[in-house]
């Protein structure tokens, strides 16, 4: 089973690539989605987050106040490390379960792990291929402001909090250049699928 890691900086077009690979038949395991799942109300992960960071990181309905937690840990490497120590093992376990389930259902399937924090959390895993979605930081900043409604200062903070492009590109087996138009990104993704498909 080809197990592919798909990563990229914020606003790099990673989700567009994942959607296209899914259209071709790949099984997409979304790391951000898994984070939300393992942090659902009543979960051991959410209980541990509340114990570590205080009950005020929960909403009145018992859900995680993501924005509140983010504002508390953002820019504090120690707090980020404590949060990651709670969340990452649970996400690792759940992603491994999803990979196994996909393999059991179809041993020939292509599984793509859509994971923004590959370098930070999963770089040493045995990926058959690491695919990096890449666009220059200035273009990604424009996208964050124009498409996601961030202020320029917020966009800069988000970009600077991530691993730099050089480190991400250094682990790439395949780079999909997303600086062009959508058709160009999809054409590169289609070419990748031809390489991956059984």
UniProtKB/TrEMBL annotation:
Localization, per the record, is:
Cytoplasm
GO-annotated molecular function = ATP binding; dephospho-CoA kinase activity
Name the reaction it catalyses. Answer: 3'-dephospho-CoA + ATP = ADP + CoA + H(+)
Q: Its GO CC terms?
A: cytoplasm
Give the first-level EC class, as a single word. Answer: transferase
Q: Please, one GO biological process term? A: coenzyme A biosynthetic process
Keyword Acetylation in annotation: no
Family label: Belongs to the CoaE family.
NCBIfam families in the cross-refs = dephospho-CoA kinase (TIGR00152), PRK03333.1 (NF002879)
What function does the entry list? Answer: Catalyzes the phosphorylation of the 3'-hydroxyl group of dephosphocoenzyme A to form coenzyme A.
In Swiss-Prot or TrEMBL terms, this protein is called Dephospho-CoA kinase
């Amino acid at each position: 089973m080809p197990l592919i890691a798909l990563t990229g900086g914020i606003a790099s077009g990673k989700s567009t690539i994942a959607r296209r690979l899914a259209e071709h038949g790949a099984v997409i395991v979304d790391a951000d989605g898994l984070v939300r799942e393992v942090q659902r109300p009543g979960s051991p992960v959410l209980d541990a987050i509340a114990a570590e960071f205080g009950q005020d990181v929960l909403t009145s309905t018992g859900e995680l106040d993501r924005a509140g937690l983010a504002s508390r840990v953002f820019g504090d490497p120690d707090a980020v490390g404590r949060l990651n120590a709670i969340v990452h093992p649970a996400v690792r376990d759940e992603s491994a379960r999803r990979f196994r389930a996909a393999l059991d259902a179809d041993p020939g399937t292509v599984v793509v792990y859509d994971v923004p924090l590959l370098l930070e959390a999963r770089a040493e895993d045995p990926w058959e291929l690491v695919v990096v979605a890449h666009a220059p930081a200035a273009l990604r900043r424009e996208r964050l402001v124009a498409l996601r409604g961030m202020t320029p200062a917020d966009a800069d903070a988000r970009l600077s909090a991530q691993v730099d492009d050089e480190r991400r590109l250094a682990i790439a087996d395949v780079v999909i250049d997303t600086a062009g138009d959508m058709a160009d990104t999809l054409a590169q993704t289609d070419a990748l699928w031809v390489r991956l498909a059984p």
